[in-house]
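Minutes, structural biology subgroup

Action item carried over from last meeting: produce the structure token record for Lipoprotein (Massilia antarctica). EB confirmed the sequence was re-checked against the source entry. Recorded below for completeness.
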Amino acid sequence: MKIPYLFSPALRGLAASAAMLGMLSGCLNAPMVDTSKYSAPKSVVIDDFPDMKAAAVIGVVVPKSYAFPGFHFSRNADFFYMDDELDELPADAPPMFKYQSAGLLDGLIVGMVAGSEAATQKRAEGFHGAVLARLPDFDMRKDFLASLRKSLEAQGIAVTIAQSGRRNYPRHRWAAADADGNKYPLGPLASSPAVDADLLVQVSPVAFYMAPGGLNAYRRNVTLGVALYNGRTKQFLGRQTLEFSNSGFSYQYMKFDTLVADIPVAAPALRDAVLSLVPQLVDLINARPVK
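Output recorded by EB:
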């Protein structure tokens, strides 16, 4: 997949301002899981998902719940998963991933790629391959699922990983809608039967290094989309985006070449950021509110 959608420098300020307005207005409507609808489960089914891509991006990508709550479980997040082994692309998949201005187009991404930044972004598309060349066993999906399973089983919860989601981009398995009744996109398993578990848990983890522009440092940007269902009735219990708090100055890289040179450190740091969200997810599964 190709990713840059180019904007002239003259549009940057306008796009960034519009993005900020979108974030502020979206803050009031961020979806949350309603933990009053269920109790701590004794059994869960976790939908598997494709391999995660360790990405590097120049541009403002904001999949956070307060800004763009529809990012996860939609085509907008597909770029961050490997697609070479999927059964088929979903009907709503775009022909190529395209960054869009939050203010001027769909309110998802502010493109800030121009000139030399575009050339750097073209090189950055190979970041995941560079990671695997240095760290052949690097696998954020595997480590995330192992950590989640271990944490749940330590609390006496029976865990089943549903392989049916392994070869499809993350989409809602069963019917789901937001507070205003707007339906979320469904995937190829929409007609699948109920499962023999208290909860069906769907996850959409996204992890990448992001530099807002050519003069900014690459920093970790990690979010985890979560959708919960009653496993036996298929009742939608809600969705929520959990966010990694990237405070401090650790793991910042002013140049893409510096990031690549430090892959043995930078890539595990990205994985650790993903794993840091597991305790929050375990809280949600156990019907404990997470804000």
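Discussion: The two ends are 34 Å apart (CA to CA).
Next step: EB to file the record with the rest of the batch.
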